[in-house]
Amino acid sequence: MRWMRNTVLFFLVVSGAILVYPHKGGGIIYIDINSPQIRRFYLAFPAIKDLGNTPQGIKEEVEKTLVQDLTISDLFYLMERVKLPQQEAYVTEENIDFVSWKNSGTEFLLSVGIKGERNAVSLEFRLFDAIQGVYVAGKRYHGSLAEIRVILGKLADEVVQQLTGERGIFQTKIAFVTDRTGNKEIAVMDVNSRSETMVTKNGSINISPDWHPDGRSLLYTSYQRRNPDLYQVFISTRNSILLSAVPGPNATPAWSPDGKRIALMMRGENNTEIYLLNEQGKEPVMLTRSWDSKASPTWSPDGKQIAFVSDRSGTPQIYIFDLTTRKLRRLTYEGGYNCSPAWSPKGDRIAFARQEEGRFHLYTIRPDGTDVRRLTKEGSNENPSWAPNGRHLAFTSKQGGNYDIYIMTADGGGPWKVTDTAANETEPTWSPWLQ
Fold this sequence. Notes:
Blueprint lengths: L1 H4 L6 E3 L2 E3 L1 E2 L5 E2 L11 E4 L4 E2 L7 H15 L3 E3 L19 H6 L4 E10 L2 E10 L4 E11 L3 H17 L8 E6 L6 E6 L5 E3 L7 E6 L5 E6 L6 E6 L5 E5 L6 E5 L5 E7 L4 E7 L6 E2 L7 E6 L5 E6 L6 E6 L5 E3 L7 E6 L6 E7 L2 E7 L7 E2 L5 E7 L5 E7 L4 E7 L6 E2 L7 E6 L5
C-alpha cells in the first residue's frame, strides 16, 4: 500500500515605534517569533558595496543568494531599492542618516560589503534598527570562493539570530532518497550551499531516512539483505550498522526526541504494528495491537505521544497514541486518505499529506484535531518534514516529470525548489540544528 511505502525583543508597533525587551540569554531580541502577533518587517537591503578586487560575477551571486535566504527566513519584506535613500550603501553608525531611512518605511537596514583576496573573499555586514536609530550587530567572514554559499548561510543565520534570539536554518542539512544511480540511495544536502553527499552506496533500495537528535547519524530501511531491515548510518564516516533484521518490515523509523528509543513499523500478530526499540535496535515493545495496518510514527517533541497512520476506519487516517495513558485517539476525519504525519518541533501542529482527486496536498492540524490548514496548491506533494525552528517544511513535490525536494514556510509560503536533477528525489528529513 502506498501509504505504507511513503513512509528579540518583541516587535510591538505602536504609533510607528518598535518596542524591544531583553531575553534570558542576556541579549536584545527584536522579533518574538513565538508571538501570535508576529508579522514580517520591512528590511532595506541596498546593493552590496564592492570594497575592491571582487571577482566578476561574485557580487551578483552573493546578492542573489542573500535575497533568497532573507526571503526564505520569512521574517522580512525586502524593500524595493528604488524607494531607498541609497540604492548602494555601506554605512557605519557614525555616518548613517537614520531619519531618511525611517522616513522611507525602513524598519531594519542591512548593509553588506565584499572584498576579493586572490582566490578568497571577505564579506562583512552591519545591521541597524532604523526606527530606534541604533546599531544592532555586525560581523566579518572570510573564505575561499568555493565557500561563498556556506559563508552566506552563516551571515543569514546571524541576522536571524541577532533579531530573534533563535538560530536560523541555513546551516542545517536535509537527507533524502534519490534514484540518480539507478537504485534508491540516501543523500544528504546542505540547505544553503546545496552541496550533496551520498551516505549509502549499496546498490539496493534504501528508504525512510530519519535524523538522530544529535545530527550525527540517520536511521533508514534497506533491502540489501532482501528484507526491509533497519540500519543506522553515521554521516562523517558513511559507515552503516544493522540495528534490526526481524523478518518482515523494519520500516518508517523515527528517533525519539532524546535519541534513546526508536518507533517503527514491524510485523505484528495480525498485521503491521507500531513498536518501540532501544537505541541499539533491541528490546522490541509492541505499542499497538489490532487487526489493522499501521505505519509512519512521528513523536511529539516532549516524547509523550506518537502519531501514526492506521487504516482501522477502512481508509488511512492519522491517530495519536499516548505513551503514558496508553490511550489511542483519532486525529483526522476529513478526507479518505491521510498519511505521512510529521509533528512540529514546537509541538503545536502536525503536518500530513491528504489525497484529493488523484493528487496529494499538504496540510497541518493542531494535535487536538482542530484548525486544519491546506498548505500546497500545485503538483502532488508528500512526505513533509519540519525544520528545527518549526517555521519551515521540506517536502516532496511532483510538478513536472519527476519528484523534487522543496521547502516552504509553515503557512505555505514559497515554495522553493532545492533539488533539480533528472532523477527522483523523495522522502526529505530535515536535520536538527548542527554544532
